[in-house]
Amino acid sequence: MSITAAHPSDAMKRQMRIGVSLSAAIMVAWLAIHITGIFFWQWSLATLPIAILMVLVQTWLSTGLFIVAHDSMHGALAPEHPRLNRAIGATCLSLYACLSYASLLPQHHLHHKQTGRAGDPDFHGGDPRLTRWFLQFFKTYYSHGQIIRITLVALVYTLLLGAPLGNIVIFWALPALGAVAQLFVFGTWLPHRERDLPFADTHRAHSLDIGPALSLMTCFHFGGYHHEHHLSPGTPWWGLPARRRALAVRAADRRGVEDPA
After folding, report:
1. Mean pLDDT of the chain
2. On the chain, which terminus has fewer CB atoms closer than 10 Å, C or N?
3. Per its UniProt record, what InterPro entries does this chain match (predicted)?
């Protein structure tokens, strides 16, 4: 579904321009911190606060890489260019944590098909406690193949390129693990856990009441607008606030038709 009411082709071209530009910005910023931190960082008391800030920013950017790949899985990144769409998504997952796009793609679409039910790879599987649910989530998306690929990259970095192992841990492993926590807490656990407030529909997803700025900072709008994402999977992450407004207008129009008085 297009994020605007314009001519479909024009809307898709605009969606691709914005999506690819934002994806490129996220990847370039991530690579800048990754390369600087791993290969060129000089440790001292003066640089320690900067390093901490870099790790925090890199955690957020790593979350962004996964969200870009997630848009790719829905064809929302470059709607009329499936090869480009897939290439960017696969690249983002490789940079983030050597994840396999081909493996994650069917898993994520199964999540949308069976949301919050048996067969949903993101579901807690009967034990909704935070730690148990997180372990289930982690085991679903992390494989031996991924660990082998990460190990090979780390060996190239250390043995061939001379990178300190500690820098690899601090500027790649820590942000990747932090992003896993972000994605799980704000993109899975909080939106899909059962609450006193029932789910709005069969999508079994809540949107968190945290405001657009915090929604962007926590999980690129996949916390604050998660229900909207399930209602409109083809809407890219940056278009979710506008999608909520459009859905609200439609709901108001329907109410006006049903109750003209």
Report:
1. 92
2. C
3. FA_desaturase_dom (IPR005804)
